[in-house]
Write a structure and sequence with these properties.
about 450 residues, alpha/beta, VC0802-like, Rossmann fold, seven-stranded mixed beta sheet, transferase, tRNA (guanine(10)-N(2))-methyltransferase TRMT11, tRNA (guanine(10)-N2)-methyltransferase activity, cytoplasm, EC 2.1.1.214
Length: about 450
C-alpha cells in the first residue's frame, strides 16, 4: 500500500449510489483544486472506502465543499486487516503529526462507523477502550469536541453474507463532510417550476462537478428545459444562460407537469427557480432558439456547456424548419411563436452539439451531456468524436433492461478551425452512431415486449 511520501493520506467515505460517477467526480474536483489523481492511489471499486494521497488539507476541504458522491474525508492515521494490524499501523504513525490534536488543551471524541454491520453499544465502547495506547491528553467532549476521530470498519458489500471480522479497519481524524444535503435541499419535489424531464438534483450537481464549474464561470445549456442544470452551476457561483426551442417552457406557459395542477402559474419560470434558491444574481438569460441553428457570433463564450438533450421518449427531438421541408399532404400549420418543427435525428443533434462546443468553449472548458444508448448494441465507438474535444469520462446510468444513458464528459484541447466542422464524417465513429437514430423505436419495442412478457407470465 505504498503511496508517495510527500503527500498526506486521506480516507474518503463514499456514498453507495451512482457508483460509476464517483471516480470522475473526485478526479475532476481534485484537478480543479490543484491536486492530481494518480494510479498509485487506491480505490476499491464498489467499496465506500477509498484511500487517496492529497497534497494538503486545504485541497481535501475544498474537495468536500463540492462533492455529492462522498460523505466524509478523514486524515488517515492507520489501517489494517485486523485490530492488531490497525494498532501496529497507528504505533508507526509519526507522533509529531498526532500531537497538535491530542494535547492537554484540546477536546475530542471517538466515533465508530461500520459498513454492512451494526454493533452494540458495548462493542463500540470496547473498540474505543482498545485505543488507550494513543497519546490522548485532552478531555473527552461528546457534544462539541474540537477534534473528532473515527474507527471505520468495512464488512464487505454482501448484506446476505456478513463476516464475523471486518475486511479492513481504518482510523483517522475527521476533516470535513461532503455536500450530500444538497440532494434534499434542491430536490425537484420542492422546486417552484418543473417539467416532465427535470433533472434529478444529485445528478445535476454531479454534472456541474464533472464540468469543473467554478465561481465566475459562464455556463450554457442549449436544451435548457426548466433550468435544473443552471441551478446546480449557479449554486457553485457560475453565471448561467441557456436556450430551448419550446416557447412555452422558456416563458413558463402552458400545461403544468405537476399532478393536480392544470396550468402553470404566472411566476413559474426558470428565473423564479433561481430566485427560490437565492441565485437570481447568477441568471443571465434564456432564449427561445433552435440548437441546430446556433445564433451566436463566432467566438469563445463559455467555460462549460452542460446539457441533457431530448431523446424522443418524454420530450420530442425537434428542430425548426420551413414549410418547404415538410412533405406534401400535411396541412399547413397555423402561425405560432415556434417555427415549424421537423424531426431531429439523434446523430445530427449530438454532432451539432459537439461542433457548437468546439466553437464556443474556452480552451480547457468542458462539455458534459447525456447520450442515450440501446444497451445490446452499444460499443464505445458509438460515442460521438471531435478533433477539438478529448473524452474525459463515460459513465453509465441504466434506464431499463435494454436501455441506458451515458454521461459523457469532454474537454476542449485545441482551437476550432473551419475544417474541423465536418471531420466527424471522416471518423469511424460516425456510421455506428447513426444506429442510435432509432433509439426511440428500440426503447418502445423493448417496453412492449416487457409488457407482453409480464401479461403472459400473469396468465400462466
Amino acid at each position: 500500500m505504498a503511496l508517495p511520501g510527500s503527500l498526506n493520506r486521506y480516507l474518503l467515505l463514499m456514498a453507495q449510489e451512482h457508483l460509476e460517477f464517483r471516480l470522475p467526480e473526485i478526479k475532476s474536483l481534485l484537478s480543479l483544486f490543484g491536486g492530481q489523481f494518480t494510479n498509485s492511489q487506491e480505490t476499491y471499486g464498489k467499496s465506500p472506502f477509498w484511500i487517496l494521497s492529497i497534497p494538503s488539507e486545504d485541497i481535501a476541504r475544498n474537495l468536500m465543499k463540492r462533492t455529492v458522491c462522498a460523505k466524509s474525508i478523514f486524515e488517515l492515521w492507520g489501517h489494517g486487516k485486523s485490530p492488531e494490524e490497525l494498532y501496529t499501523s497507528l504505533k508507526n504513525y509519526p507522533v509529531e503529526k498526532m500531537v497538535p490534536f491530542l494535547h492537554s488543551e484540546s477536546t475530542y471524541k471517538i466515533k465508530i462507523h461500520t459498513f454492512n454491520k451494526t454493533l452494540t453499544q458495548e462493542e463500540k465502547v470496547k473498540r474505543i477502550d482498545a485505543l488507550e495506547f494513543l497519546p490522548f491528553e485532552g478531555k473527552v467532549n461528546l457534544k462539541k469536541p474540537q477534534h473528532v476521530f473515527s474507527v471505520l470498519e468495512d464488512y464487505g458489500l454482501d448484506p446476505n453474507c456478513i463476516p464475523e471480522r471486518p475486511h479492513n479497519i481504518y482510523f483517522g481524524r475527521w476533516i470535513a463532510d461532503g455536500q450530500r444535503e444538497l440532494i434534499e435541499s434542491y430536490s425537484v419535489k420542492k422546486r417552484h417550476f418543473i417539467g416532465n424531464t427535470s433533472m434529478d438534483a444529485g445528478l445535476s450537481f454531479i454534472m456541474a462537478n464533472h464540468a469543473k464549474v467554478k465561481e465566475n464561470d459562464v455556463v450554457f445549456d442549449p436544451f435548457v428545459g426548466t433550468g435544473g442544470l443552471l441551478i446546480a452551476s449557479a449554486h457553485f457561483g457560475a453565471y448561467v444562460c441557456g436556450t430551448d426551442i419550446d416557447y412555452n417552457t422558456v416563458h413558463g406557459l402552458g400545461k403544468a407537469s405537476r399532478k393536480n395542477q392544470k396550468w402553470r402559474g404566472p411566476d413559474e419560470n426558470i428565473r423564479a427557480n433561481l430566485r427560490q434558491y437565492g441565485l437570481e444574481k447568477f441568471y443571465l438569460d434564456v432564449l427561445v432558439s433552435d440548437a441546430s441553428k446556433p445564433s451566436w457570433r463566432k467566438g469563445t463564450y463559455f467555460d462549460a456547456i452542460i446539457t441533457d438533450p431530448p431523446y424522443g421518449i418524454r420530450e420530442s427531438t425537434r428542430r425548426s424548419g420551413s414549410q418547404k421541408q415538410i412533405p406534401k399532404g400535411i396541412e399547413k400549420c397555423p402561425e405560432s411563436h415556434v417555427p415549424v418543427s421537423l424531426s431531429y435525428h439523434l446523430s445530427d443533434m449530438f454532432f451539432d452539439l459537439l461542433n457548437f462546443a468546439a466553437e464556443t468553449l474556452e480552451l480547457g472548458g468542458r462539455l458534459v451531456y447525456w447520450l442515450p444508448v440501446y444497451t445490446p448494441e452499444y460499443t464505445e465507438e458509438m460515442v460521438p468524436w471531435h478533433p477539438c474535444l478529448k473524452l474525459i469520462s463515460n459513465c453509465e446510468q441504466k434506464l431499463s433492461s435494454h436501455t441506458a444513458r451515458r454521461l459523457i464528459t469532454m474537454e476542449k484541447v485545441k482551437d476550432f478551425e473551419n475544417r474541423d466542422q465536418y471531420s466527424h464524417l471522416l471518423s469511424d465513429h460516425f456510421l455506428p452512431y447513426q444506429g442510435h437514430n432509432s433509439f426511440r423505436e428500440k426503447y418502445f419495442s423493448g417496453v412492449t415486449k416487457r409488457i407482453a412478457k409480464e401479461e403472459k407470465s400473469s396468465q400462466d
